[in-house]
Amino acid sequence: MRLVIVGCGRVGALLGRVMSAEGHAVIIVDKNADAFKRLGREFHGETVVGVGFDRDVLRAAGIERADAFAAVTNGDNSNYIAASVARDVFQVPQVVARIYDPQREAIYRELGIRTISSTSWAVNTLKRILTSSEVDAQLQFGTARSRT
């Protein structure tokens, strides 16, 4: 799969490393070149400096050949715009945007953008852990395990 990721913060960098390690062609776009330091030596993809919803920047990242696109910057509006451009202008088949504000998440979903709200996910997961009646249930978060 050819994946374009906009945003090289913690989520974008980890997603890029994981997908790269699995053999996918990964291109990460970030407006701050220093952000790419998070990728480490194990990242075997490409990087592009620029704004993630700029069409020329996305073309430089090879979006016209992308199979998937993830907008994971720290800005809900930027993620929505980038995801919309990927979907509507470049017809990328799989597009997702990370959204912090659960109210915006609902609006963006109504507009047809697949979203994940880390805020909603965290609250729902924490609620499930705190109210779980299973004494010995195991939950996995990334590479860490927790017993409840």
Model description:
By secondary structure, the protein is α/β, with parallel strands linked by helices. The protein has a single domain, classed as NAD(P)-binding Rossmann-like Domain (Rossmann fold, 3-Layer(aba) Sandwich). 36% of the residues lie in helices and 24% in strands. The strands form two sheets. A six-stranded parallel sheet has the order 3-2-1-4-5-6, sandwiched between helices. The chain has a two-stranded antiparallel sheet with strand order 7-8. It is globular and about 50 Å long.
Short description:
The chain is α/β, with parallel strands linked by helices and 148 residues long. Helices cover 36% and strands 24% of the residues. Helix 3 (76-89) links the parallel strand 4 and strand 5.
Number of helices: 5
Strand content: 15-25%
What is the arithmetic mean of pLDDT?
90
At the fourth CATH level, what is the homologous superfamily? NAD(P)-binding Rossmann-like Domain
Query: CATH architecture, please?
Result: 3-Layer(aba) Sandwich
Q: Return the structural class.
A: alpha/beta
Query: What profile does the largest beta sheet have?
Result: 6 strands, parallel
Just give the CATH class.
Answer: Alpha Beta
Radius of gyration: 16 Å
Helix/strand order:
EHEEHEHEHEHEE
Across the major sheet, the strand order is: 3-2-1-4-5-6
Structural domain tally: 1
